[in-house]
Sequence to fold (327 residues):
Amino acid sequence: MLTGMPDRVRPRLLIDCDPGHDDAVAIVAAAAFADVVGIVTVAGNVPLDRTTHNALVMRDLIGLDTPVHSGCSRPLVAPPRHAGFIHGESGLDGAELPEPTTPLDGTDGVEFIIDTCRSSEGLWLVPTGPLTNIGTAIRLVPDLPDRVAGVSLMGGGSFGNRSAVAEFNIWADPEAAAIVFDAFDPSTPGSAAGPLIMAGLDVTHQFQVTPDRIELTRAVPGRLAAALAGLFDFFTGTYLSRHDEGALSGAALHDPLAVLAITHPELFEHADRHVVVETRGEHTAGMTVIDERRLLERSDPNCRVLTRVDADEAFAVVLDAVARFSN
Fold:
């Protein structure tokens, strides 16, 4: 088990996201259980203008007092690739959401990440979309991983959802992901980087918005809960329509686990592994290659790979977060 936090200390988080149904829930959980110093958007589930709009919607919907900056509009090398077939063309199809009333704070997302990491102690980076912003920031400031408490990301896994072996966030920008994973390699000279935590498909597919969990959400009074229940209905519909019958009971609610791994680490089990990202394989680009060998010559771990979550307890935590902002 990961080490618990005494007295539930509120960590400081900077969220890098591409909302996205599950990103929206990650923002709610982060606002409830952490101090969110900023939100940066990236192109991913939908183009940048939509992910930025959706982040502003969520900030207003929960009354979160934190800046929102837009970041990179396309991957470092790969062509732009989105996931409207999962999240709808808006990125948050399934609910009538209010238009944002507060303005965007800047279009300098990468610079904002760098400046915030330089000026803040004990800050966690929580990317829940493609790693373009974080990879660009590390390329510009190679010692950035040494300046943060750690990075907790949603992405990767031992199997894929955009190819047989590649998960969407890593597949969408494998070059940026490779920069991030390589930056946490303990063999890097002078490295003092904090932990890199990976909430990949192996653990996020354990955390599904089943019909019962959707109804539990709908039973929470207030506007936010009603909106999220509608989002869950849509999200689950697209998920189940794309999988074999019986393969899943609901949509995998990926992104909140990257937040809960920091705020509620006792909910998880993990294994420390060496992970690299494949960038060039014809059939394997975007694969997170997780070294499971027991050979002595294997590389030292650079990643804390989440392997199990107590899904019922984790969803209870999510419902607690929703109830705090639903009125």
Q: What stands out?
A: Residues 86 and 241 are 10 Å apart (CA to CA).
